[in-house]
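Inputs:
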Amino acid sequence: VGRAKKPYFKRVAVVGVGLIGGSLAIELRGSKMAGSICGVGRGLKNLKTAKRLGIIDEYTTDVLKGVADADLIVLAVPVSRTAGLVKAAANALKPGAIVTDVGSVKKAVVEACEPLMPEGVFFVGGHPIAGTEHSGAESAFAGLFKGRRTIITPTKKTSKGALKAVTQVWKAAGSEVVIMDAGTHDRVLAAVSHLPHMIAYTLVGAVADLGSVDNGEKIVKYSAGGFRDFTRIASSSPEMWREICELNGREIVSSLDYFMKKLSMLKADIKAKKFDRVQREFERAKNVRDSLKSGVKGWRK
Amino acid sequence: VGRAKKPYFKRVAVVGVGLIGGSLAIELRGSKMAGSICGVGRGLKNLKTAKRLGIIDEYTTDVLKGVADADLIVLAVPVSRTAGLVKAAANALKPGAIVTDVGSVKKAVVEACEPLMPEGVFFVGGHPIAGTEHSGAESAFAGLFKGRRTIITPTKKTSKGALKAVTQVWKAAGSEVVIMDAGTHDRVLAAVSHLPHMIAYTLVGAVADLGSVDNGEKIVKYSAGGFRDFTRIASSSPEMWREICELNGREIVSSLDYFMKKLSMLKADIKAKKFDRVQREFERAKNVRDSLKSGVKGWRK
């Protein structure tokens, strides 16, 4: 993985040329870190779009063909498919290759993938905390990762060279890189991302359960802008979030437990009319939330 | 309250010339429903601003003076202050006057205010489901209520004339008027507004409790755009939300109970690895949420 400062990958395979995979391909090309980029996917239509848009140089629906001779393999597929793909492709990987992913869950993925690596090939888990509601190659764009954090989760087995190479890839994409063990990543993401999604889906379901008021109109229709902002994430892909629950269930359950404990305390305070305490909790939360408004990298613009 | 179609109020008193009171004053003037508008408040600075902006014709910090001779009195003050103001001003109200409010809680307010009305004066509770993060007279603007719902909560004692007049006021402001009893209003708003605020404050508090990761950085800083949208309402006024908890505690506790029951069911499903059920719940919520995206009146733009 050549040169002193910037790694150079003669051939890169991007498996899953969607919003994340496609945007990273654009950055790899723009930063001249990739010689040629091969897109790998199941659907020809998306791959053709990616080629037409100049995101990739060539494409194939054959994973083995796509990863053979690749120096860097980026797996940008739903988290549930990552380990299966690695298993299928492991023997086709060339010595010295680096495999990385972009999934929202790291421990299960890294633990499944790392042992599958042939001698001299490294799997390095990664997770760019970035995204939009859109998907597919045509939604990819330069700058998606700019100012956002990417968490990289090496293990004791990860070579320094592989870690450095993956770090450079994300830095070249404009991202701030944070190194973390996979378990910590999953605990942090359970709190700041997975838990909010569980809450949003459940809240929308709870309000839908309430049914209608006398005029026959659904109660949920009385919601205003605050509710819309609050529940926007309940429009996320149910399939993707089911997979995240499957792969990070323990941390999600633990964050749900803690959240419900706090919500029970608030409820008890309201019932006991301890409104000074209620207000203090609100004030503390407001201060924390207000502190996020500016100066935080990784925000959606 | 003259004319056949449109009521005409010779004198209107707006107590609290902030975002809501000020914007309603603008609409009353624009629709020619008010002869003159007197702003009533505690702070001279805000009242002077309101006059300078042409929102009100005159102002006073003396409530009794402000409401005397008014045909319509709009109480646009924090919900906790409404009943006290009505009590203080009741004897100064002129026969035939109509008193209305704009608060987020209706049962406690209506039950406290209605019995205080002198003979021939009516209190009609109202709640425009509209707002922005801003406050004060300079944040008032024409169009705030356009396309939003306003809920009006008459009782058995409310005269048809008073109900009609208040309905016309909000229709003139561009709002869609929905008539509901105060208890139903509080149950509906507990679900679509009060519960989400309780959740948002508690979620931000829970994530803040988690502290920092190894690099010393707070876990909450790893949140991305979804979390920011999700918790924006945790930046709302702690004082106002404490008051809403005080006045609508029973419904808020009941909505918290239902929400927590559903969240416990989700947790149990994740623990029991019943992921098909988890996904079905997510799908149902997504469908409901997606249905809110378009065609719903009352959304913040």
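Residues 182-209 of chain B form the longest helix (28 residues). Flag for discussion at group meeting.
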